[in-house]
Write a structure and sequence with these properties.
Layout lengths: L1 E7 L2 H11 L8 E6 L13 E7 L2 H7 L15 H10 L9 H18 L5 E7 L2 E7 L12 H17 L6 E6 L2 H23 L3 E5 L2 H11 L5 E8 L2 E8 L2
Parallel strand pairs: 5-6
Antiparallel strand pairs: 1-3, 2-3, 4-5, 7-9, 8-9
Helix pairs in contact: 4-5, 6-7
């Protein structure tokens, strides 16, 4: 019996490659999955699996027929459903994903999203510690910010999810900005919370701010953490969670 290694999306494709390249006897084929295929996320970060196929050549079958037992001639099924069970339940994912791979996957994901949204923009990616920063620049890109950055936050969440799908053990986080919106929003939030804090200090009445996402709430808490007259805390459940500014008794 001979064997060959093939890279393919699944075992059927690997067998098809074998049959095209050799005069293999179909009934003798046995497939072993060496590395599990990775479908990626929306097709991004996809990797072929590594399959080892053992087989007899047709011209050798008659010579070996009398020497082999019925047990040795059993054909290992490579039915799609059975192969899926093997891949999902018996094999570990041995594909190694580097930080460079993650940056590439994140950029490709964002570029694909822009393409599907008919938005022309430049995508710049850089790594700072364990944070992948993606900056999107373009005349049409601002349409993807959304009300108070809701759409931008969704893009950032989906990109992080794409990385997690490809590498569930990743410790890398994703930060996405469009046309420097994050900095502008941060300055706006600080002005808003400083004004609210002065009001609370003057009236000694508690004030509840607008609903905010976790990123924005952290900005407010950080801006007022050393204030002499007020304290802050959050209440509610996302997405209806807000910062409360209270007079310091």
């Amino acid at each position: 019996m001979e064997s060959k290694i093939f890279y393919a999306k699944n075992s059927d494709e690997a067998v098809e490659q074998l049959l095209k390249s050799t005069n293999a006897d179909k009934e003798s084929i046995q497939v072993t999955v060496k590395e599990k295929p990775n479908k990626g996320f929306f097709g991004l970060g996809a990797r072929d699996g590594l399959f080892e196929i053992s087989y007899d050549l047709l011209e050798k079958k008659s010579e070996l027929k009398e020497e082999t037992t019925v047990e040795e001639n059993k054909v290992e099924s490579y039915d799609k459903e059975e192969n899926k069970d093997v891949e999902d339940n018996e094999l570990e994912d041995t594909v190694s994903i580097t930080t460079e791979d993650e940056m590439k996957i994140a950029k490709e994901f964002v570029e694909e999203l822009l393409k599907n949204s008919d938005v022309t923009a430049d995508v710049d990616v850089k790594l700072e510690d364990n944070l992948i920063k993606i900056h999107i620049q373009g005349d049409d890109a601002s349409c993807l910010i959304g009300r108070r950055g809701d759409t931008l936050d969704a893009i950032q969440f989906l990109t992080g999810l794409a990385l997690n799908k490809v590498n569930k053990h990743s410790h890398t986080r994703v930060f996405i900005d469009i046309e420097n919106y994050r900095n502008k929003r941060e300055e706006s939030l600080k002005r808003y919370c400083y004004k609210a804090a002065r009001e609370v200090a003057r009236t000694k009445r508690t004030k509840k701010l607008d609903y905010m996402n976790p990123y924005e709430r952290r900005i407010v808490h950080s801006a007022l953490q050393n204030d002499r007259y007020v304290i802050t805390y959050s209440e509610g459940t996302d997405p209806y969670r807000r910062v409360v500014i209270e007079y310091k008794r």
